Amino acid sequence: MRKIIPVLLPLILLLAVNLQAFANKTYSDKDGQRFEFESFFGSDLWGAKGKPIKSHGILYLPKNASKENRVPLAIIISGLGGQRGRDNRMCDVLSSKGIACFGVRTYASRGIEHTWKSSQKFKVAGLGSRFHDAYGALEALRSHPAIDSSNIWQIGFSLGGNLSALALDPVLTKPFQRSDNDFKGFISLYAFCMKTATEKLKSTQFHQYLGDADGAYHEKECDEFISSLKKRGVNAYFTLFRGSSWQKIGHLWDNMQAASNGWHGKPEGPWKMHQDGKVYSSFGISIYECGFEIDPNTQTISAGNDILSSPNDNEAWDFVIEKCGKRRGVNVNKHQIIRKVDEEIIRIIHGH
Question: Which listed site, 9, 33, 224, 338, has its alpha carbon 20 to 30 Å from 66?
Answer without folding.
Answer: 338
